[in-house]
Design brief:
With 479 residues, the chain is mainly alpha-helical. The chain has 3 domains: 42 residues, no CATH class; 260 residues, no CATH class; 127 residues, no CATH class. The chain has a 5-stranded mixed β-sheet, sandwiched between helices. Strands 6-7 form a two-stranded parallel ribbon. A hairpin with a 5-residue loop joins β2 and β3. The longest helix is centred in the middle third of the chain and has 23 residues. The radius of gyration is 24 Å and the shape is globular.
Length: 479
């Protein structure tokens, strides 16, 4: 049976109590004393800039660790020198950050450019130099998207994942955060040449993935053979990979009669990165086809396929363009979390799941598995702290405050149910905002992303998955 705890017994994890205490429980005399102290501090702060160098040194409590054998974050890592990264060779069109800022409430930093004192403060917190190059240019507000691993991963497992994450290979995740607060980088932040990490990035709100793949194969079949090869070669250029192998994998996906047939082939041989590379090649083809009306005729495999080539590229144009924008403007962070009972919210759902899977995949006890107990918090203090530092790092690179959001929200709420993910399960987004504010000396109510709404109904605006039965705690907003 799940054990319920009173909110005042969980001062460490409840966002309303985190660091600032639970003032409503104090006596009148103590309240008067505290108010007097706050008034005095307010007068003092009027003459004190919390972002000066002297105060920033006081705010540094546990910076991201230096370089180690496990590829932890290094202040001298190339992500702090974006002039050498692929995205700077093809600058993005810029949407002024002020445009996004005007649409945000006054307590939100989302989309706001970093001031020079903020840049210097963040650089000192991270123990690095502020980037000498101009900030990256985005076509939409950059996002900082949180995930959970849906199963506790060992350091070795995380290391192996990061070693496989290059270009179209592996995962689109930028960093992993262990329960001990160990941060392992997998990719550069805001890397435009990576696989998608969400259904949102596949732009399934514009066109379903099934329909997209059908149009992709129509384009491939309608394109002249030599131009296919040129498009594939262009897609893998500059990735420092085995280009011939990647071209072959992409061709297998593009020539597969269906997605089911491709999945069957992938179960027998390593085709990692083939789909991503194939989509890049199709984007290259369509960029040329849509330049003018005559291009489709010249690029088609026959006069009869020219119309198909042009119409399919027109259907895919907005999807491919939006995917490019979303991938290039997003940073993904995986937080190490136990498997639990996935996104299931009732024991009946768990039993139905167990009836369909192999014994090794079954969820124990046929019930909803607690993600949090008194002895084991869903996420540790070290994880909240290191995620806050990763966010500051992404802001320094972007030159503005990205929008923190959840995999749950972008796939199930923002554009309707385009995916089935619910991570990060039971993550206290309110507390993360407070951690960031502590580093920067901002008011505790300052927001750096979506306004948290905890629950199970994204269609009603819930953007952080929270199941009381799995977390042994009421949602933060209810405390």
């Amino acid at each position: 049976m799940a054990i319920r705890y009173k909110p005042q017994d969980r001062t460490k994890s409840s966002p309303q109590n985190f660091r600032w205490g639970n003032i409503h429980q104090l006596s009148h005399l103590k309240k008067i004393a505290i108010i007097s102290i706050l008034i005095t501090l307010g007068i003092a702060l009027a003459f004190f800039n919390p972002l000066t160098q002297k105060n920033t040194e006081r705010l540094v409590s546990n910076p991201i660790p230096q370089e180690s054998e496990s590829a932890e974050i290094d202040p001298n890592h190339p992500i702090f020198h974006e002039s050498d990264s692929p995205q700077t060779s093809q600058p993005f069109k810029s949407v002024p950050a002020q445009f996004d800022s005007l649409q945000q409430p006054s307590n939100s930093k989302v989309g706001r450019p970093l001031s020079e004192p903020e840049r210097q403060a963040i650089a000192q917190i991270l123990r690095t130099n502020a980037p000498a190059t101009a900030p990256l240019r985005f076509e939409q507000t950059p996002k900082f998207i949180l995930h959970d691993t849906s199963g506790e991963l060992s350091d070795d497992a995380i290391y192996n994942i990061t070693q496989q994450s290059r270009g179209p290979l592996g995962l689109g995740i930028a960093a992993f955060v262990s329960r001990e607060g160990k941060v392992t980088l997998a990719r550069s932040f805001f890397d435009p040449r990576r696989p998608t990490a969400t259904v949102y990035e596949k732009s399934a709100d514009i066109l379903s993935e099934t329909a997209r793949n059908q149009e992709i194969r129509r384009i491939w079949q309608a394109t002249e053979a030599s131009l296919k090869q040129a498009a594939l070669n262009q897609a893998v250029t500059g990735l420092n990979l085995d280009e011939a192998s990647q071209v072959k994998r992409a061709a297998i996906w593009l020539n597969a009669p269906s997605e089911r047939a491709f999945e069957a082939m992938r179960s027998r041989t390593n085709l990692d990165g083939g789909k991503t590379t194939g989509i890049w090649a199709i984007a290259n083809i369509c960029d040329n086809v849509l330049m003018d009306r005559d291009r489709a005729v010249r690029m088609a495999s026959s006069p009869q396929t020219a119309k198909t080539l042009q119409s399919s590229c027109q259907k895919l144009s907005s999807v491919l363009e939006e995917t490019r924008k979303r991938v290039a403007s997003s940073v993904h962070v995986e937080i190490n979390q136990m498997r639990g009972s996935e996104c299931y919210t009732s024991n009946a759902q768990v039993r139905a799941y167990n009836a369909q899977v192999a014994a090794s995949a079954k969820i124990g006890a046929n019930g909803v598995v607690p993600l949090q107990t008194w002895e084991r918090p869903a996420y540790t203090d070290e994880q909240y702290q290191k995620i806050a530092l990763l966010y500051l790092q992404s802001a320094l690179i972007a030159g503005q405050f990205p929008e923190i959001t959840t995999h749950y929200w972008v796939d199930q709420g923002k554009f309707g149910k385009i995916g089935t993910h619910c991570d990060p399960r039971g993550f206290n987004l309110t507390r993360l905002y407070q951690e960031i504010s502590l580093y920067l000396g901002n008011p505790p109510e300052t927001r750096y992303g979506i306004e948290p709404r905890y629950g199970l109904h994204p269609e009603k605006g819930d953007n952080v998955w929270w199941l009381e039965a799995a977390l042994d705690e009421l949602p933060p907003s209810a405390l």
